[in-house]
Amino acid sequence: MSVSLALACVWVLLASAVAMGPRRFHWPAALILAASGIPLLGWVTWENGAYWGLGCLIGGASILRWPLIHVARRLAGRATP
User: Fold this and answer.
1) Which residues cross the membrane (predicted)?
2) 35: which of 11, 51, 61, 65 lies 20 to 30 Å off by Cα?
């Protein structure tokens, strides 16, 4: 297993631990996880190929689904006149 995939597994474990924690930590942790996950996703894709990168993208989006939903709603509200 490559180092990038091992770190992606650690990222998933941290995200799961945050999800089990108190609710007041969810949004700050989601921002930190997103900020660290984006470069990690690029590294996984670079080192292991597009299929592994796509798998990690889908996994990360399923973990961070509520922040993604809120961002999509906010962007959709700004797009409509």
Assistant:
1) 50-68
2) 51
Residue tagged 């969810």 (tokens): 26
What DSSP line would sit under 2-47, residue for residue?
-HHHHHHHHHHHHHHHHHHS-GGGHHHHHHHHHHHHHHHHHHHHHH
For Cα atoms 27, 72, 26, give the angle at the middle one, nearest 5 degrees. Answer: 10
Q: Quote the CA–CA distance of 37 and 16 in Å, as a whole number.
A: 14
Name the pTM for this structure. 0.81
Give 39-48 pLDDT, tens digit per residue: 999 999 999 9
Residue 70 lies in a domain: yes
Task: Determine the structural domain holding residue 32 and report its residue range.
Answer: 3-44+54-79
